[in-house]
Amino acid sequence: MTKLQDTVLIVDDEALIVMALQMQVEEMGLTVCDVAATAVDAIAMARRHRPAVVLMDMRLRGEGDGVDAALAIYESVGSKVIFVTGSREPATIERINLDHPSAILFKPVSQEELADAIAAARAQQVA
């Protein structure tokens, strides 16, 4: 398997959330390789860019949700997935945990929470 790139893929179907996350990631000195609004696009972009970290929303446009995309990305690419979601329902959290996420963050996400989660995910890549 090819080495992962030290980049971040953002997967969310809300443009304002994407812009906010992108600004936060770039303020950390990291590169956002791409953004996606659907599970299908997220999987294709992850395979193309091979990001070390994926910021994944649970609810996406089109068929499939964040867990579907995360499972496929982890299996085919090996990226660490951090869920950034507004969903706090127990069934949703249980479904997210099926994927063994690197972290689960609830919107709105502070710069510190995001930075800590990304740093931990990147450290796991090296280990």
Helices and strands, in order, run as EHEHEHEHEH
Count every helix, treating DSSP H or I runs of 4 or more residues as helices: 5
Q: What gap, in angstroms, lies between the N and C termini?
A: 16 Å
Structural class: alpha/beta
Number of domains: 1
Q: CATH class, anyone? A: Alpha Beta
Q: What is the overall shape?
A: globular
Mean pLDDT: 94
**Could you please say which CATH topology applies here?**
Rossmann fold
In the CATH hierarchy, the architecture is 3-Layer(aba) Sandwich
Count of strand segments: 5
Low-confidence stretches: none
Rg, Å, rounded: 13 Å
Strand order of the largest sheet: 2-1-3-4-5
Strand-residue fraction?
15-25%
Question: How much helix, percentage-wise, in residues?
Answer: 40-55%
Task: Please characterize this protein's 3D structure.
Helix content is 46%, strand content 23%. It is built from 5 helices and 5 strands. Helix 1 (15-27) links the parallel strand 1 (5-11) and strand 2. Helix 2 (39-49) runs parallel beside helix 3. The longest helix is centred in the last third of the chain and has 16 residues, at 111-126. The chain is globular. The model has no long low-confidence stretch (mean pLDDT 94).
